[in-house]
Design a protein that fits this description.
The protein is mainly alpha-helical and 115 residues long. It has two domains: 79 residues, no CATH class; 33 residues. The chain contains four helices and two strands. Strands 1-2 form a two-stranded antiparallel sheet. It comes from Variovorax boronicumulans.
């Protein structure tokens, strides 16, 4: 099950996907899915984007229980993109390589250095 944590882009706590869950939502890249969908159905680009996006949103909601409305937001709801929780405020560091917390400016603590 997806891990609920703070998304700094969305500014709320929401389900963040593991790599296995992410591959269920996006088995191939969004562009590849759109290309395949258009070849299979003959849909125009706009319709293909909408249909493929809706399918990704439905899969995300089934996995997480959270109703996201923007399929492109799902790209950053991926656990591997975030760093460990900040030792001061508890929010995740923005990247695994971050040296400080963008939310509270605390430096990456020794307790976070090995995570």
């Amino acid at each position: 099950m997806a891990t609920t944590m703070y998304c700094w882009r969305c500014k709320i706590d929401l389900p963040i996907l593991t790599e296995e869950e992410y591959r269920q939502v996006f088995p191939t890249s969004f562009m590849e899915q759109i290309r395949e969908y258009r070849e299979k159905t003959g849909a125009d680009l706009r319709q293909a984007q909408a249909d493929v996006g809706e399918r990704a949103l439905a899969t995300y909601e089934r996995i997480s229980g959270f109703k996201e409305t923007n399929p492109l937001a799902l790209y950053h709801h991926r656990l591997s993109l975030y760093g460990p929780p900040c030792a001061e405020c508890g929010k995740p560091l923005r990247t695994p390589a971050a040296n400080y917390c963008a939310a509270c400016s605390a430096p990456r603590g020794r307790s976070n250095a090995t995570r």
